[in-house]
Amino acid sequence: MRAAAAVAAAAFHFFPASGLGVDRRRRSPLLRHLSIISSFWSRVGLTSISMGNYVCTRKLQIMVKLEDGVDDEACELVNGTEILIGGSGDSIRAYLFKAVKNNNGTGLLLLSDIFGFEDSSTRDFAYQIACNGYNVLVPDLFRGDPWKKRQPKPEFENWLGRQQPERVAKDIELSTKWMVDEFAAAGISKKLGLIGFGFGGEHLIETLAKNNYFGTGVCFYGTAISTSVAEDINVPVLFICGDSDPICPVSLVSEMEKIIKGSRAVIYSGRGHGFAHRPETQEEDRDAEDAFNVLRNWLKDRLILDEDNAVVSKQFV
């Protein structure tokens, strides 16, 4: 992880330099609607309601009206809830996005990039996945300390040093256990999927190598991913990246594809880091839309149609 600092630092050249709360990327019609929702969400007053093994801190149901001509199935009603996972002494915040009308019962854990779980691009993407019938949990991997776009670049390595790998891994395990208890043990779903962007993509690989709680993973331009760790992964992984991304070299992704049985690498020509969830041009928009469709089909084939992937809650005991 620490050896990855120099590589990860290069990310500054591939992310927008706009100020906090300002996202200048070009959005597809669906994402524009969801961004308005995200802005409204941030102004909703907080409540605190105990709900079993988590605390609901805010909750709202959102009706999404698509623009004419947008062909998106089942994006009608999304239930968004901010929750606290874990005990009162050591809990983490997370967002849970649930499809209401056409929920397929499948749980997905989404690991964010360095900008954290409250970032508008991450929220938009999570909403879009939930619109397709899923339950998407996005944990706060940085415990309230994500990287901010206005922070001076020389501070990055110090910031990264505060994100202890052991603590991040523990929070991912805690989030995984919550999903198993919430969806699998309750009989709602037998399958879980794992998605990661950049920093989250790195931890996706490490997470899949350590446990069997997930039926598949989708790694978007993971930083500092390790081929040695990949040898311990027993589920198929979809890799999505661009061939102009020095943080996630195509050669490394191709090697990972060969090592992990049943995996697939989708490489987009001319694309750099973050294009799939932070498109900035019309051309990136088209590839981002294509990448999302690849993701959607992959999840459907590996988690919805494949009845062999089962998560057993007692593995956490």
From TrEMBL:
GO terms for molecular function: hydrolase activity. It is found in: Cytoplasm, Cytosol. Pfam families: DLH. Residues 92-301 form the Dienelactone hydrolase domain. This is Carboxymethylenebutenolidase homolog. It comes from the Eukaryota. PANTHER family: CARBOXYMETHYLENEBUTENOLIDASE HOMOLOG. It comes from Dendrobium chrysotoxum. InterPro entries: AB_hydrolase_fold, CMBL, Dienelactn_hydro. GO terms for cellular component: chloroplast; cytosol. Keywords: Cytoplasm, Hydrolase. Transmembrane segments: none annotated. Belongs to the dienelactone hydrolase family.
